[in-house]
Amino acid sequence: MRNYLIPATLTVFAVGLVHLIASAPAAHPQSQPSQFHLQEATIDDIQQAIRSGQITCQQVVQWYINRAKAYNGPGTRLVTEDMAPGIFPKYSEYKAAVEKTADLLVGDPRKTVPLEFGRMEPTATDPTVKQQYGWIEGVPNSPRTSALATINLRGQRSVTCKGDLDQKDDPPGTPKVCSELAKLPDALEQAAALDDTYGSNPDLEKLPMYCVVFSFKDSFDTKDMHSNAGADAHYDIDFPARDHTVVNELRAKGAIIYAKSVTSEYNGLGGDPGGKNFETKHLNLEMYSRSTWAGNPSNVYDTTRAPSMGSSSGSAVSVSSNMVTIGICEETRQSCRGPANHNSLALILPAKALVSFLGGGIGSDIYNDRTGIHCRKIADCTKVLDAIKDPANGYYDSRDIFTTLPRSYYPSEPYVTAITAGTPSALRGMRVGIVREFMVKWTKADEPVVDAVDAQMKEVLGNQLGATLVQSVTPGWNDDPDMEKMTTTFDDAIRQIVPVLYPDLLFHLNGKGEPMFPDFAAKIKPTKFAPGVIRGTGTLSAADWMIRWADGLEPTPRNLNLRSLFGLADSNTFRFHIDQYLYRRAKDWADRGYTEGLVDWPTLNARSKFYSDHQRAAFKNWEEVTDLREPLNERQGIAERIQLRELLQRVVMKVIEENKLDILINVHDQLPPGKIGLAPEPTINDRTQTFPLGPDLGWTEVLIPAGYVQTVYDPTFELRTDSHGRKFYGSKTSTVPTTLAPPGLPYSISFWCEPGMERRSLKAASAYESASKRRIPPPAFGPIPGEP
Predict the structure, then answer these.
(1) Less Cβ crowding at N or C end of the chain, within 10 Å?
(2) Contact (CB, 8 A) for 264 and 287
(3) 579-584 contacts: CB < 8 A, separation 24 or more?
(4) DSSP 3-state assignment of 403?
């Protein structure tokens, strides 16, 4: 039987709406003409309608609440074992292997563990609430998607202080900390206060975010809402003592602090550091968008599919489905870009630490974690980025060590002034480099998006807007004969700079202990690659080979290119970051006279549940990490992150300088999103789901919707046997096309350049957005009755 789940958090929310809708300000009579439409409303649309007297701020918030009631909720269902034969080929053979190896110890590499099928269980956060654990799949044509985890409505915004414990009149027996929460207005009360103070004449210079309704990825602390990084962990006080720095700035600028969006917990859980804890059941595809507490969002253009390979999916889904005006996201390696790309949104992802993230947030990898902005129009993104700037301190935040940037990074004029209309030849004179390395078509699955993006780049950016397009040169891509080619390529820059900044790269080993770059090993004398590992069959010393390589006298190893630079060693900073966050959160409450007992890894694990046993084992392993370094004589992930960033910045700047480029562009992801809970597209050659160049580089990226594809090639599961005899389900790419209903699945173009030059990429991105007008609102999430 296929079971739907409506989490109790959402059930309470829906019941509470009955009173709220009845008591909210009445909408304008239907007979009164109105030019304002909530669908696709921009910041200007909302503020101008308020100024013209067409709407009030309370009405805006109420309409968004109505949309959440209609559209926010689970769009996934359980996958139970009786369904397995229809999903997993040769499942009887797999099950037989499970039974045959049942007596082997957990962690034995020969053991085939059972699949972790779907089930309903009480949550740790609130045992009265049940949630989906284990395997799930998307519901076709679901009328709902899990975008918002918590909505800022009195009595419903906290588990610690739910129901009558969050009332302004402080009923008898109300805990003191709940009295503190009750003093804070909910979203409707925030709107009412703005209406009472300003009416139809808001001070937009002082309050540029006036009545702009925000969702925040649950990684960001909000003092008036449940904040749990998407996890199912039981805090004594489930809301923090103070806001994240970005939340605080937006609140001060008139924003409505409305909701927490669904995030994959802890932004992807930081991986598994390894240890003595192993999974006892297996969930083949980790749900990169999934929260144990709040569920798994569905793609708004096809609810059977993942919203993205990115943990900020709830942020993007809430904006694309018009449940909020703006979403604040967080990215480690793909968490903002993927959801924007796959849900047809504009995105500004500021340079690493231009905007604070560590100022009250739970991250996954603090060297990459950064704050981003999801909008339906790029102009709105720039307005939010301008508003986040503190009048006194600018973008600096003493709680985030990474915001110690040179002041030259900051603009002398507001970012919004860079927005440009897409008039013909608006980009004439601009030289735009196309990064073809990310457009190589390895399988049929790559073709629809890559071909469509290539056409958009040439037709709109080149022919209509007049930009000079300059393509990089890389094996596997058929160069456009009519397009200028880069004279200094990424490969040229890599061979000149790697020997100076990152010679270790050539000595990396693969999972089998063999050289990652065999052409290099074939040229050098036997040399120590790692402790106890001697490789090399040539005649040159490694140093001599690198000297010759840098000057073009030795060919670059065939598999060394821009795509292959991103294989980083593990880092233990997740162990540090979670502990630091928990300590700071508890201390904030202690400074105000309250006790929060969830203060470290042991208490976190003791008070948590996870949707898969894999996460449980990983978190127990994190608890047992005692050193932020990797084992001595092994690759050090922290050093590699810093080293790689320095390398990439020099490589990319050399290409920009020597080809006289203003900006660079690329396809964000050459693959459409896969089916929730089903097979992922396999990695082929060095092609991954999305390339983390921007996150590892640390520069500002801007994504703009570029269109939709209606043909996809969905991978399938296949049963395999590893070298130990263990059975497992892998995935294989497909050559069988699937045709999707219009408009299809979205794709984007990414625009980027070096810090301090963001105006160039914003100019090109906004001109492209204006000229192409490619975003189409998701048809299944249209206006609801009574909505203007």
Answers:
(1) N
(2) yes
(3) 581/361, 581/362
(4) helix
Question: DSSP letter at 444?
Answer: G
Output the six-digit token pair for 67.
Answer: 């949309």
| pLDDT for residue 399 is more than 80 | yes
Q: Residue for token digits 């009173």?
A: 19
Q: Do residues 243 and 360 lie in contact, with contact meaning Cβ atoms separated by under 8 Å?
A: yes
Report the pLDDT value the prediction gives residue 690, as an integer from 0 to 100: 67
Does residue 156 come out as left (phi exceeding 0), alpha (psi in the -120 to 50 range) or beta? alpha
Instruction: Classify residue 172 as exposed, middle or buried by CB count within 10 Å of its CB (0-12, 13-18, 19+).
Output: exposed
C-alpha span between 81 and 104 (Å, rounded):
22
Q: Are residues 711 and 448 in contact, defined by beta-carbon separation less than 8 angstroms? A: yes
Using CB atoms within 10 A of its CB, is residue 271 exposed (0-12), middle (13-18) or buried (19+)? middle
Question: Can you point out the beta strands (E) in 396-520?
Answer: 431-434, 468-471, 484-485
Q: Which residue bears the tokens 């979403």? A: 327
- Distance between CA atoms of residues 668 and 689, nearest Å: 10
The DSSP code for 664 is E
Q: Give the H/E segment covering residue 504.
A: none
Contact between residue 316 and residue 339 where contact means Cβ atoms under 8 Å apart: yes
Determine the pLDDT at residue 271: 80
Phi, psi of 104 (to 5 degrees): -70, 150
Q: What pLDDT, in 10s, does the model give residues 703-716?
A: 999 999 999 999 99
Question: Which of left, alpha, beta for 215 (phi over 0: left; psi -120 to 50: alpha)?
Answer: beta
Q: Residues 219, 222, 226, CA angle at the centre, nearest 5°?
A: 80
What percentage of the chain has pLDDT greater than the value 70?
94
| pLDDT computed for residue 2 by the predictor | 28
Average pLDDT score over residue span 185-191: 98
Residue owning tokens 């202990």: 513
DSSP, collapsed to helix, strand or coil, labels residue 260 as: strand
pLDDT at 5 over 80: no
Instruction: Give the three-state DSSP class for 196.
Output: helix
Confidence check: pLDDT of 160 > 50: yes
Amino acid at 242: R
- pLDDT given for residue 6 in this prediction: 31
Beta bridge partners of residue 752, listed in sequence order = 664, 701
Which among 498, 514, 486, 440 has a CA at the least distance from the CA of 666? 440
DSSP code of 509?
Answer: B
Contact, 235 vs 598, CB < 8 A? yes
Mean pLDDT of the region 501-526: 95
Q: pLDDT band for position 570 (50/70/90)?
A: confident
